[in-house]
Amino acid sequence: MKKVLSIADIARKLNISITSVSFILNGKAEEKRISPELAKRVLKLVNDVGYVPNQLAKSLRTGKTNIIGLIVEDISNPFFANVARLIEENANDRGYKIFYCSSENNTIKTQELIKVFRERQVDGYIITPAAGIEKDIVSLLNNQAKVVLFDRYLPSINTSYVIVDNMGGSYKAMTHLIQQGFKNIGIVTLKSDQTQMQKRLEGYTLAMEEHGLKLCIKKIKFHDSTENIIDEIKDFISKNIKLDAIFFATNYLGVAGLEAIKQLNISITSDLGVLSFDDHDLFRLYSPSISVLAQPIEEMSENLINILLDHLDEEKESVKQIMLSPKLILRESTQR
Amino acid sequence: MKKVLSIADIARKLNISITSVSFILNGKAEEKRISPELAKRVLKLVNDVGYVPNQLAKSLRTGKTNIIGLIVEDISNPFFANVARLIEENANDRGYKIFYCSSENNTIKTQELIKVFRERQVDGYIITPAAGIEKDIVSLLNNQAKVVLFDRYLPSINTSYVIVDNMGGSYKAMTHLIQQGFKNIGIVTLKSDQTQMQKRLEGYTLAMEEHGLKLCIKKIKFHDSTENIIDEIKDFISKNIKLDAIFFATNYLGVAGLEAIKQLNISITSDLGVLSFDDHDLFRLYSPSISVLAQPIEEMSENLINILLDHLDEEKESVKQIMLSPKLILRESTQR
DNA sequence: GCTCTTGGCTAAATCGCTTTAGTTAGGTAA
DNA sequence: TTACCTAACTAAAGCGATTTAGCCAAGAGC
Which residues 17-56 on A are within 7 A of strand D at the CB atom? Predict the structure, then answer.
């Protein structure tokens, strides 16, 4: 088993001290008055033998890992995958690596992930908090950890976060539907107390009530299988024959909804208007194309990484809370 | 700044040695004859003060990080996102964490990622190799690193890998199209020398030639923007008016293809049969639904993690090369 | 009374790096 | 000649864990 080379091996081969090698490798040769000749010799050897520094040792010594822990709800959900991808790019450009994991919006899993991140000494955290995770976040903050929440926040904790104006967005979307002449508009959302879902429902409710329309709400159980969700939606549609439009509160409900509508052989637009939260390839390309309330994922990821890196730099605590506006993209499914 | 507690702090508080604390925390209390009473006291304190072990130090000492580096082409591509998700789950159950990154199928980026993984001392690597990465993989292997490739392999290197029978799959898909009566079948693929794309093209060619049909091939430049890809496909279809079916060699070409076809106002199935490599929500739900050659992602991820963990356990080198069969899923788009 | 066990615990080396506080040799200034 | 610089380099402590080798006291066996 060929042992992997350490800085000490390099020093030994050149008959110099470890210190010198370290200075040279860290670009401090001049500052520390190492002669250019020595620097050149070291760099050449390092390159020739393919020496790679051990970041574990480095981080242990310096207390910095240059790693950001990112917990998303589900990396196979295109919304989160895209945000993750953008955050990764952004972080990379600024010298940070992202360690990302899916929480499945499960409290226990999230707790475990936070523990793993702590053990690995990540420099900062970006988290889509699952319900019931308040204590763990507070504990992080108490330990001076740098945390930014996203997609949703925890009302009882004063942390930094980046979210979307869920209520305003939903209200805007609903207003559009109503202006198009839809009257019996239903919402399909999740049974959830989390802020993002609550606010989407509030936006729907507010718009409907302002126009004196009757509410028609379907709440789907969290973590239900796709098949069940489809069945639930079919059931909802069948039992509310007067429905003329549906607002889906999140992308996978929208996807399941399309499947349900297809199975029921209902024609979108002429029989039923459709609008969904979150954009998706499917919504863009579906026939008819589906109107959506798209989250500004570039802006979100940029804000997330900026805020977190700011926190890492500053000594004193500060809290930044950003609310971005989702964008209403009108397509065929809401055209009358 | 509240300092994070170390094992030494725990020992000091109880007036015992670091060694004892370490033994207890690692479940070696009995084996090392630590009295149950002491063990209990330590565990209680650890729990009360919320001590979390420093994995950096642990890994530095033991030489094991329990981290697997995973390089996929693009985490925002549903195929890779799903595989990543499954690998993560599998690895988790077996005590490993996944560190994943997107290579964008770019050689330089991949090299950098491999370097990062080496620096971070990952225990093993799962890589979708970009073109021209042979030297770097060989270098890894020379350093006794444990590596499994997937999605494609490097013919010049004898490594473990998990791939799909691209040629057989394509051949099967083409045979289906031909049996359905399609005669002027085109393929839209990527300009790429990588094995996966080559084999898909070979499968197409073989089937067509066996039936005496004329080839009609469109190769799209790698990393082209979605808009350009759509334009290229529109151009391809317009210039080959006799085409009666198209086989898309990978998911995002298929997605772009649907958009192109939609823009050209061509009716799928009656005017043009469509079949794509890789499954996708969009293909399942599109109207008409699109037939696909789906990769067995559960099986792939299981094999990947199993092979890698086997490698981690065994002393002697061994090479495992697995080829799985993709599954032809027939939908409306190829029904005549 | 003496040796041998064994139970219960610990000192110190080590992993690979950074960083502080030097050392040494040769040159200048007075 | 002596004191002081400076350029060029280095010894050793420390980050937080694991692990080897060993200490000490009390009881067992003869």
Answer: 17-20, 23, 32-35, 37-38
- How is residue B63 written in tokens? 């030489």
* C-beta atoms surrounding A204 within 10 Å: 25
Please report residues of A whose CB lies closer than 8 A to that of B4.
143
Q: Which residues 134-153 of A are in CB contact (within 8 Å) with B?
A: 139, 142-144
CATH superfamily of B166-295+329-334: Response regulator (3.40.50.2300)
The top-level CATH class assigned to B64-164+298-324 is alpha beta
Query: Is residue B315 pLDDT above 80, yes or no?
Result: no
Taking only the tens place, the pLDDT of each residue in B138-191 is 999 999 999 999 999 999 999 999 999 999 999 999 999 999 999 999 999 999
pLDDT exceeds 70 at position A2: no
C-alpha A11: how far from its chain's center? 44
Helix axes A195-210, A166-179, angle to 10 degrees: 30
Domain ranges across chain B? 7-53, 64-164+298-324, 166-295+329-334
Q: What digits encode the pLDDT tens for the residues B253-299?
A: 999 999 999 999 999 999 999 999 999 999 999 989 999 999 999 99
Asked whether the predicted pLDDT for residue B76 surpasses 70, the reply is: yes
Using CB atoms, pick whichever of A52, A60, A75 lies closest to residue B119: A52
Concatenated DSSP letters for A188-235?
EEES--SHHHHHHHHHHHHHHHHTTPPP-EEEEPTT--HHHHHHHHHH
**CA-based nearest residue to A238, from A258, A215, A266:** A266
A306's tokens: 């900026």
The Cα–Cα gap between A328 and A283 comes to 13
Q: Given this chain, do its domains A66-163+298-324 and A166-294+329-334 carry the same CATH topology?
A: yes
Biggest distance spanned by C-alpha atoms of chain B: 86
Percentage of chain B surpassing pLDDT 70? Answer: 99
Fold of A66-163+298-324: Rossmann fold (3.40.50)
Is residue B237 over pLDDT 70?
yes
The verdict on a CB contact (< 8 Å) between B119 and A55 is: yes
* Choices 3.90.79.10, 3.40.50.2300, 3.55.40.20, 3.10.580.10: CATH for A166-294+329-334: 3.40.50.2300
The residues facing B322 across adjacent strands are B162
Predicted pLDDT of residue B2: 66
State how far residue A143 is from chain B, nearest Cα, in angstroms: 6
The answer to whether the CB atoms of A121 and B280 lie below 8 A apart is no
pLDDT, residue A182, reads 96
Residue of B nearest to A56 (CA): B56
A59 interface with B at CB cutoff 8 Å: yes
Encode pLDDT of A264-306 as tens digits: 999 999 999 999 999 999 999 998 999 999 999 999 999 999 9
Question: According to the model, what pLDDT value does residue A183 have?
Answer: 95
Mutation for B interface: A47, A48, A55, A135, most B CBs within 10 A: A55
- Is it the case that residue A316 has pLDDT exceeding 80? no
* Predicted pLDDT of residue B132: 95
CATH code reported for the domain at A7-53 = 1.10.260
Sequence-distant (≥ 6) Cβ neighbours of residue A248 within 8 angstroms: A187, A188, A189, A254, A257, A274, A275, A276, A277
Q: Does any CB of chain B come closer than 8 Å to the CB of residue A286?
A: yes
The predicted pLDDT at position A287 comes to: 87
pLDDT the model gives residue A55: 97
Check whether B73 has a pLDDT greater than 90: yes
Q: Which residue has the tokens 């976040």?
A: A137
